[in-house]
What we know:
- This protein is mostly helical and 129 residues long.
- The protein has one domain.
- It is built from five helices and no strands.
Amino acid sequence: MTQIPKGVGIIASFHGFASLILLIHVIISIPFIIVTFFEDAGLGFIATFGSIFDWFMIGIHAAIATALFSRQKFGIRMVNISAGIGLAFGIINLLSGNTFAIFSIIINGVVLLYIRKPHVKVWLSRETV
């Protein structure tokens, strides 16, 4: 068994960490959503939909981390989609005046360039397992 490339390990760890942080956020916000739902139904519905979106994001981040750690080929596609969306929103943020969005653009650009390197594609292919 070959050693995991450092960049792939870092990207997978960040996605795993993001899923854990989002899980903690959802668990902490459940009592507040319940209280808000009974006090003001409109805000309760909005908070409920926000929580449902967080559950989807937990699943996406966990799937990316699992795909990268278990050397699944679709991990490249998922990282490309995730970083591409982040890059697009970073550009939109930069154009709307948020100068700190340049960091998001740089990070997502580096991730997109790294995940397309030949040694990463070879390592994530199922033939090398």
